[in-house]
Amino acid sequence: MAAPAKGSAPPKPNTPAMCGSKSPQARQAKKQLHSLHASFTPEQPKNPPAVEVAKVPASDEAATVDGEQVTVDARTLKAIMLSHSTGVTEEQVNLKIVATETDGRWYVTDLRISAG
User: Fold this and answer.
1) Is the pLDDT of residue 78 over 90?
2) What pTM was estimated for this model as a whole?
3) Cα separations (Å) of 5 from 8, 29, 83, 105?
């Protein structure tokens, strides 16, 4: 993952030192990722899970995919999220992942989830 671009500065990729930090930002990020983990994990995942992302056109060195364009062990991420949800319908769940290219590598710079 990377912090989104600010102004004319490019996105800032997270480093192992940042991820291992005990800063408030690192603790908050770990808490958020931990809470999302179960929602994005299929029942009885392979070890390691097979993750595939559809090839989509990139514009301005960024690409956006939705929950139907990412598969984990051959199930869409949207279907996995729905399998862990109660009281929401398929039409109510929306997932957008924005990835940005920095120095030849792609990083998730925005994750938008809505339900309901």
Assistant:
1) yes
2) 0.80
3) 7, 17, 33, 15
